[in-house]
Amino acid sequence: EEEGVAAVEIIAGQAGHVNYQTIPGVIYTWPEFAWVGASEDELKAKGVAVKTGVFPFLANGRAKAMEEIEGVVKIVADARTDKVLGVHIVGPRASDMISEAVTVMEYGGSAEDIARTSHAHPTLSEVMKEAALAVDKMQRNL
User: Fold this and answer.
1) 94 to each of 19, 99, 101, how far by Cα in Å?
2) What is the per-residue pLDDT across 42-66, written as a single tens digit (0 to 9) for each?
3) Element (H, E) at 99
4) Residue 82 confidence class, pLDDT cut points 50, 70, 90
């Protein structure tokens, strides 16, 4: 879809742009899988120092109420700058949740940016916030 928009923009004399690093992937199984950016293994293979944060849906009140507790959110960030380089989600509504990661990555945001952003309670998106807190070992005991 973004390539189509960029093509029309170029035809119209504008600067079309597609950031291939921020195009999300989704597998519509149950639970869903969604990701954007690089994996921890890909980055380590390239010699990039990373730090990660992981948080399970099992610890989320909304997931418990929905009886959908399988899965985790994993955030991979640059060890030096904290810039988010990849996000991987397996769990309920992963396809909806990945857009937060795409936005943060599109604008060069950090795990701390996600961690300091208010997330409605109780929502599944709090799993993203908790994973971001875990990147710097700031997880709360919920």
Assistant:
1) 21, 9, 11
2) 999 999 999 999 999 999 999 999 9
3) helix 94-106
4) very high
Residue with tokens 């954007």: 36
pTM: 0.91
**Angle, CA of 93, 96 and 101, to the nearest 5°:** 115
What is the set of active-site residues? 121
**Contact (CB, 8 A) for 81 and 109:** no
- Let me know: does 111 contact 120? Beta carbons within 8 Å: no
Q: Which two tokens stand for residue 138?
A: 């700031």
- For residue 78, the cross-strand partners are 50
Element (H, E) at 64: helix 61-66
Work out the number of other CB atoms within 10 angstroms of the CB of residue 125: 21
Specify burial of residue 135 (Cβ count, 10 A radius: 0-12, 13-18, 19+): buried
Q: Around 59, how many Cα atoms within 13 Å sit in the side-chain half-sphere?
A: 15
SS3 68: coil
- Average of per-residue pLDDT values in the chain: 95
Structure tokens at 27: 């597998």
